[in-house]
Amino acid sequence: MSVSLKPSWQRLWAAQNNRLTAAKLDTLGGLLWTLTMSGLLLRAALLFRKRTSLPTARQKLTLRNLELCAFTVVALFLLIRVDDLIRLYDQASDRWWLDDALLRGHVFALAAAALLFSFAKPPRSIWVAGALLMLPPLATMTLPEVFGLCESCTGRGRGRAWRSPRRPRPPAACWP
């Protein structure tokens, strides 16, 4: 006697979370959702601006924030998901190196922080705190050798910021 179970297509796709095709489709679906919500925010702001009465100063500020939020959400989504897709692609093609992933993660995190700071427009003390918190990742990115990230992994000395797909694996001395 044999028993077999054929899962529904939803469960089948849910079980493929580490496959590159499924990750791309998931990212595309999330991007479409984010673009739709951002488009609705922009449409609502446009409809409010077309009213016959003039908006007050507070309403103008709120409308400006809604419009900025629509663009910021899309850019933030792309920053987060592109980093994940690059990591999955590198792992699938057996080119994933921890050193590169750490450096690239710092770049995407700093870009996301800069994007959020530019949207929020916090007071000066928060900017100073953010700048101080950005010092460790910047130090890691500029001096990877000091933090145990080898020189050959970052492409330093060869005129390239990132490794090319044809570059051979770094020497074993680079890995802890």
From TrEMBL:
The keyword DNA-binding does not apply. InterPro entries: DUF6185. Coiled coil: none annotated. The chain crosses the membrane at residues 30-49, 61-81, 101-119, 126-143. It holds the Pfam family DUF6185. Keywords: Membrane, Transmembrane, Transmembrane helix. It comes from the Bacteria. The keyword Disulfide bond does not apply. Residues 157-169 have a biased composition (Basic residues). Residues 156-176 are annotated as: Disordered. This is DUF6185 family protein.
